[in-house]
Amino acid sequence: MKTKTFIAVLLVVLLASCVPAANVVPTETVIPTSTFTPLPPTPSITPTPSITPTPSITPTPSITPTPTPERLTEVKDFPSWIDNFVSAFGGKVTVNGKKMDAGQLTNEIRNNPEAFTQFRQIDNVQFSFLVVNDIPLAIMKNGKWNARSVIGELFLAKEILFGFPYNMEYNPFHRKIIRPLDDIVGEYSKISFPEDSFYQGFTFKDIDTGSNPNWTEIDKYLAFIRKYSLDGGSPHIYWVTTDYRYTADNPQLLEVRTRLIVEHCKNDIHAWTINEIINDSGKPKSVNAINNARLVIKTIRDTDPTAKIVMNDAGQEWSPQKDKAYFNFIKQLFDEGLLREGDIIGNQAHNGLLYDKSPQQIANWFEKYAKLGLNLRFTEADVFHVTKLSNSNETEKAKIFLTYYQAGMILDKQFGRPVLNAFIIFGSTNSSSWLRDMEIYEEYPVILDDNGNPLLSYYLIVKKLFADTGE
Description:
By secondary structure, the chain is α/β, with parallel strands linked by helices. The chain is about 40% helix and about 15% strand.
């Protein structure tokens, strides 16, 4: 009996040694092992008395299978996004000490995809990333590789909505909403619908004349939001500006207009923006600006009690007079119950290439708002004075965008909750930047070129976010 037992045990050991471990990543990888935690190998056989042995690999629904060369060759436009990556770095990248152009890198990945595939647990789901030089070029989600959604998924891993406002077409009286590139909408996990085009694009002058509003254009807008499950936008419903004063100084019309719009849109739009109430000197931008803002917020609360309010402006961190006046105004609204915990202060974050605020300085500026329970949103982030594409300019641009993100991380840690709730870059592509609206063409203020291809700043941002998800 002892001899038979010994032989049986010996056979199990020999069989186990012949079965390869599942999901083991080769030791020669692009990313240092300290930045990720691969899944442990699944035991090949689990001997259990009187129970049928477990198969060598047990599929887990929430885990994406390790990619194979066949899967990688099926990725749509696989060479094109590798080419974009290599182009962003000047035409060649160094991989394991060897310089490669796009064609060489594509062949390397196709021949040995496991060497470039890393895993990361995000919200208890394991994602596969295709990684070169510490930068994930694509993410596998729901069994499909995707090149452009990487940055959105990594922001979401930090509980931050990332998005672009989609394209807007300028004319002297209002902006017309136009469709973005379909592949951008389809590939990014979250796209923010425009912060400012709603108020400008749909002037509702028929309300001012006592007529019933025509909802045709707004319904097209809402259908677009529903089609792509767009999230995070908060259209301007009140904006103190001389261009649109037909409602600004008429409280009765402003109340009616606000109530009709919020009622019509409340199933699709869950946040509304009050924009640019106070100027840099700390004075209201118009005689009725403060009272009208109160009226609009109260009307929104009465019409849709669940809606959030975004108080959006720029330059508070630069102007002590504006900072003091703006905070006092916000505090009054909070004390009156018109603003509440979870509402949002929007910082437009239009800054130039020489921007010199540190993450800690931004966090220090926002701390007083966070103490009220308000959240921070960068609503229109871009970097101007980037007049040529160069490694140095793109590196500095990425640094500025990451300054905002890092300020949010400081605040999250300080207050023990997600304070930074959205990071929106103002323009889905370089050609849809507001600078193009102003007919300024020699600028590169965002992270995608005119065709939606990632610039170097995109990849540098992704690298930082990817490193942070490995903490």
